[in-house]
Amino acid sequence: MSSNEASRESTLSQVLKEQYKVRDMNLIKALIALGEASTHISELLTNYVSHTYAGTQNNSGDEQLHLDIDCDNAVFEAIRKAGVFSIAASEETPVETDVSSSSGEQPGSFSLGFDPLDGSSIIDANFSVGSIFGIWPGKGVLGRTGREQVASAVTLYGPRTTLCIALPSASTDLGRDTVLEVTLTGEKSVWEVSRDLIEIKSSGKIFAPGNLRASNDNEKYNALIQHWISDRYTLRYTGGMVPDVYHIFAKSKGVFANVSSEKARAKLRLLYEVAPMGLIVECAGGLTTHEAYDASVLDEKIDDLDKRLGVCFGSSDEVKLY
Q1: Alpha carbon of residue 222 to chain centroid
Q2: Which of 216, 210, 208, 220 is nearest to 267 (CA)?
Q3: What is the C-alpha to C-alpha distance for residues 158 and 192, in angstroms, rounded to an integer?
Q4: Nearest alpha-carbon partner for 62 in 232, 261, 275, 306
Q5: For residue 112, what is the enclosing H or E element?
Q6: Hey, which of 95, 128, 235, 305 would disulfide with 158, CB 3.0 to 4.6 Å?
Q7: According to the model, what pLDDT value does residue 121 have?
């Protein structure tokens, strides 16, 4: 283990154990592994030069970049090394993959659903991109709901590398849900708390309208967009889910929607994107809803690893308008 790796593990462990009272040391190890994966991905992005395709497609039919596969491998390498995960599935490897050191469920083991590189289609413009992680207790993710997660995290790669972590009340001794942000500093040797508590206000006139083409044949979505425009909301939209939702965390307000229509189908996956991000939003005091009915995305069952849905996230009053 390098001195930088040891320093990162030590600083993040101290933050989670002492400041945020995380109960389970294995959960701390799991989150440290995600921090290590994020550090590796940050390095891959820093040295990314050529936009080369691997000649394969993911389940969405998207052409995979070599970078997508490299980032996916970085996460699998980190979680296997951690020794506390049993199963993992990702957008690039969409099967329940055994990542345990031995067969069978281990005490305190976790399962992971993740998107290793959200926003690869905008990376050549040097926009911020991210990674999304959801941690479930035990073995397997099929048949579970987002509400069963013991933690989730999102990493934002931009001018800084930041890791935003959601900790439900059952995972700590704080007595409440909490969301924190740590930033990779000291030449990538230290995880430093940059925001000790992220909270989303009940209202805020900032909007990010994903899958905008759906407004062409979805009258209700078009009406909502016209409301945002006529009421002089501020548009903040990059085309990447991570930076667009993260902007809500940064400003402590706003609304993100990614709605489907007959001609523009839902793209966001419940396991890899919606459930982990939804946990962060709700732990920070915001609301989430399925596009078709009033229900939290955290109560939607993962009955297919590729299950997709339209969503609305953000400030509670803004989501209620949806």
Answers
A1: 27
A2: 210
A3: 16
A4: 306
A5: strand 110-118
A6: 128
A7: 86
Q: How far apart (Å, rounded) are the C-alpha atoms in residues 72 and 92? A: 7
Predicted pLDDT at 239: 94
**Per-residue tokens: 229:** 């425009």
User: What number of other Cβ atoms are within 10 A of residue 195's Cβ?
Assistant: 16
Q: What is the pLDDT of residues 259-305, one digit of tens each?
A: 999 999 999 999 999 999 999 999 999 999 999 999 999 999 999 99
Give burial (CB, 10 Å; 0-12/13-18/19+) of 2: exposed
**What is the C-alpha separation between 87 and 178, in angstroms, rounded?**
26
Q: State how far Cα 219 lies from the chain centre.
A: 29
DSSP 172: B
Which amino acid type is present at position 58?
N
Strand, helix or coil for residue 52: coil
C-alpha of 246 from chain center: 9
| 163's tokens | 């890791």
pLDDT less than 70: residues of the chain: 53-63, 102-108
Chain centroid offset of residue 53 CA: 24
Structure tokens at 110: 């976790």
The closest of 84, 136, 81 to 113, measured between CA atoms, is 136
DSSP labels, 277-314: HHHHHHHTT-EEEESSSS--GGGSB--STT-B--EEEE
pLDDT number for residue 64? 77
Cα–Cα separations (whole angstroms), residue 205 to 130, 246, 254, 259: 24, 15, 6, 19
Q: Is 128 exposed, middle or buried (0-12, 13-18, 19+ CB in 10 A)?
A: buried
Q: Which residue has the tokens 């955290």?
A: 298
What is the DSSP code (8-state) at residue 145?
B
Answer for the pair 306, 269: CB distance below 8 angstroms, yes or no: yes
